[in-house]
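REVIEWER CHECKLIST
Item 1: Sequence provided? yes
Item 2: Single chain? yes
Item 3: Sequence as submitted:
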Amino acid sequence: MTSQGNAANSAAETGAGVTPPQSPAPDRDVAELEDRWLRAMAELDNVRKRHSRELERQRTAERARVASAWLPVLDNLELALGHASGDAFAEGVRATLDQAVEVLARLGYPRQDATGVPFDPAVHEVVTVLDDPDAPPNTVVRVLRPGYGDLRPAAVAVARARE
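Item 4: Structure as written out by the authors:
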């Protein structure tokens, strides 16, 4: 070997004259990592918000499902009271019915059983139309089955429009 070859080999072995590889730009790497971290945090926040909305939607749907299941019970209590005498048992059934109606109202499903109000298709369902000379046209004259908020509309009889 020549003296030049020996000098090159010894320089390569000792690492002299060779520059170690460096990352292209340390600041760029830090900026990229910060950007990825911020995006991950934003995605986590979005997931939390989505989960919160979905949870609330599920709660509302379940509350409506359970409340709807009780509506036939309330209807039957009202039918029973319509055929009951004024004894203590009937008063107990009336108190139970009132308590159940109050619970539904607290859950966001208020009872809709007003007469003399204008017909509103959002809260009423017309079952029959009656001739009532004392009531203005398209006014609820009788509630056949009460409504409860968004659970079901009130079944009503409406005054016929005069000709």
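Item 5: Key structural point noted by reviewer: The longest helix spans residues 26-83.
Item 6: Recommendation: ____
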